[in-house]
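Sample pair:
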Amino acid sequence: MGFSSLGLVVSIAVLAPNLLLLRFPPRGRRGPAHVPRALEWLERAGQALCLVVPAITEPGNIVWWWALPAAGALVAYYALWTRYLVGGCRVSLLYDRVWLIPVPMAILPVVTFLATAAWLGNLWIAVSALVLATGHIPVAVITSRNARLTN
């Protein structure tokens, strides 16, 4: 345990864009998605872990080249947020696939945290990312299917 400024920066960089939803809520029809409660809990736990764990655990052996995939995933994630804003904040833009990647706005944060775990040599960040993946990706897939059915 200990403070990691690099971990804090990554946590904020990945999770801060979600605050855009407060100012620019999704537009379009979206019916209620029936998400199992266990997945909702896993998603919330993963989000909380990915916000806190990188900041409160010291890096191990830093492997600097892993910063490149972490940064690349983050840049791609920001590009999708830009697409959402420029595209009129349509709900479908939060869930649409890109190339062959389903729900990339759910997958890219997980990739960023996993690459960060390798970069900072921190197993706890990897565990947090896997908890996030276990909840966030299935919830996004369920919500995506529901959004497609109602549009």
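The chain has one domain: 5-150.
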